[in-house]
Amino acid sequence: MTDLYADDARHVEAMEMPGTDCKRITEGKPALIKMSEQFNKSTTIHSCWVSKPLVNGDQFVCEMKMDSTSHAGPFAGQRMQVQEYCVYTVRGNKITEAKFFYGC
What is the CATH number of the domain that holds 42? Predict the structure, then answer.
């Protein structure tokens, strides 16, 4: 994340997660790094798969599938399989925005 993201990068989640510190929009590389560290500390990832990127100009999209167990918040102890699409915007060879869309 430190090498790939712009200093002013932001993540836009599909929604806020009630009962957690996860906000819908997180801005700035330091905040994104902190969010990533908190996720890694509170989650066991059993498997993760990422598709090849589909590129269009300054954006690309990847499909991601993750099998994980949360150890904190309202989903503590629950194993979940999540599918999401991530749309990334790039400026100056750095990711400036990531938007996440979840499969149902």
Answer: 3.10.450.50
